[in-house]
Amino acid sequence: MRIIQDPDRDRGNTVKSLFKVMDILRCFSEDKPEWGVSELSRRLGLPKSTVHSILATLEKGRFVEKNPNNNCYRLGLRIFELGYVVRCSMGIREYAIPYLEDLQEKTQEIVYFTVPCEGEVLYIEAVYPSKRLVHYSIVGRKAPMHCTGVGKAILAYLPDEVVDEIIRIKGLTRYTENTITDALALKEELALTRQRGYAIDNREHDPGIKCVAVPIRDRWSGNAVGSISVSGPALHFSDERIPYYAELVMDTARQIGRKVTELPFSDTVILPARREDKA
User: Which domains can be identified in the chain, with CATH numbers?
Assistant: First the structure.
């Protein structure tokens, strides 16, 4: 598995002005979807004139758009279009969908497929029960590793030093009363995950949700390159039901894992920038 430690630190023989563009684009998030010129200038330590010029250029290309009500910028439709292209070009996603649909049919729960991304997990596919009302799709969103089943399934098969670095950089934020916020306790949970072959999210990220997750492992290296899970209301995941779900998820992961090395898919884990670097 290739581990990249904060690639922004070594920009080498690159077009440095483009890194300014990427730094601006990466500021937009679900928590803060809109930014003003002055805000971005302070956040990134760039002159206002530089930020304004970059945003004006991006606006012309529809990569960002200006909110007329407050003159702040938000991501534009061109980004949405490119995101769809990326999703469609993921060979492993296309290969995995039939297996994910079969798993959903057997469990009648939501099935998620994730990959590691900068110390978190990125949801690249979801299959929902046909009779269940879905208010929004989680595809394209990221979630923490330490309190999600899909995240712990991947963490359990990362080198110890990488787990330590992710904990140090991302922290162990509490989301519910069940969230593991102690590094030693988390490592004990990861050891248990390896022992039984699957991870459990026991209402650790969402107070009403449980899930069972299994890593998708490269058949040659054994590294976790992704994970899948079944997720649903906690009442559906009794102690007796969890092992049954786990067997189904493990079988699905094995089937998908057989083809992982034959598909154009990266097993790189890119660690996020250190907090002090982005202050």
Answer: 9-82 (1.10.10.10), 90-271 (3.30.450.40)
